[in-house]
Design a protein that fits this description.
This protein is of the alpha+beta class and 111 residues long. It is built from two helices and seven strands; from the N terminus they run βαββαββββ. The protein has one domain: Alpha-Beta Plaits, CATH 3.30.70.240. This is Type I-E CRISPR-associated endoribonuclease Cas2.
Length: 111
């Protein structure tokens, strides 16, 4: 299975993607293409999409851990790898702001 999530795709690339993929949501494409064809699609996207496309591609594979993640351009998420396991993390992970109206009491920090 190949899943492509993009910020924005060029119209020609988007039209071509619609030939083999379903688009359940704008700029999200899903297909059950074989592994050999999936690699060609990934290469095609890397060749024909500008960095502003913000591509994130998820491809199932027969090798451990069972999937691959590819990124191109400025994506809204960041790809990282921990102990050989590719993961996606939020870029804007900021600590929650202090809420003075919170109902939970402040727990003192251990020293």
């Amino acid at each position: 299975m190949l899943v492509v999530v993009a910020n924005d795709l060029p119209p020609a690339v988007r039209g071509r993607m619609k030939l083999w993929f379903i688009e359940p949501r704008a700029n999200v494409f899903v297909s059950g293409v074989r592994d050999s064809l999936a690699r060609k699609v990934v290469d095609y996207l890397h060749e024909h999409c500008p960095p502003k496309s913000g591509l994130m591609i998820f491809n199932s594979s027969n090798t451990c851990p069972g999937y691959e993640i590819f990124g191109l351009g400025d994506t809204r998420k960041e790809i990282t790898e921990i102990s050989g396991l590719p993961l996606v993390i939020e870029k804007s992970a900021e600590p929650p702001p202090d809420n003075p109206n919170s109902l939970t009491p402040d727990v003192p920090k251990p020293q």
